[in-house]
Task: inverse folding
């Protein structure tokens, strides 16, 4: 039992230290600050052609971008018709949304700042209402 504790306690300390270090690294990463259109109507988004503005915490390298499925997979994915940067801190996506549907889209770590540091992924999720 004593030998077990001699191994368990240092392992637990290493895990705690790594968790703390990971949190510190995550705090320093660029992030998505907000998506104003989702903040204005977080309950139900109107279906049809919609635009979303993605506000980043710092200037981004406009050569890099990317979106991936959210945790619920392909069935809830938003197909992005168009993406472009309006300026170094604002991205713009155009999408076409179906009525009465739950959507997810992850703003992925393919986005990076001017120094090449990748962002923390950001999950967009919302429902659409009636047409």
Result:
């Amino acid at each position: 039992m004593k030998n077990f504790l001699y191994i368990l306690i240092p392992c637990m300390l290493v895990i705690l230290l790594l968790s703390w270090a990971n949190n510190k690294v995550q705090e320093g990463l660029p992030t998505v600050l907000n998506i104003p259109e989702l903040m204005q109507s977080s309950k139900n988004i109107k279906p049809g052609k919609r635009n979303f503005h993605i506000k980043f915490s710092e200037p981004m390298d406009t050569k890099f971008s990317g979106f991936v499925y959210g945790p619920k997979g392909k069935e809830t994915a938003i197909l992005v018709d168009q993406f472009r940067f309006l300026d170094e801190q604002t991205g713009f996506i155009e999408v076409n949304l179906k009525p009465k549907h739950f959507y997810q889209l992850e703003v992925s770590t393919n986005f990076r700042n001017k120094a090449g540091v990748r962002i923390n992924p950001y999950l967009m999720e919302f429902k659409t209402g009636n047409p």
Notes: Residues 108 and 121 are 5 Å apart (CA to CA). The chain has a mean pLDDT of 88.
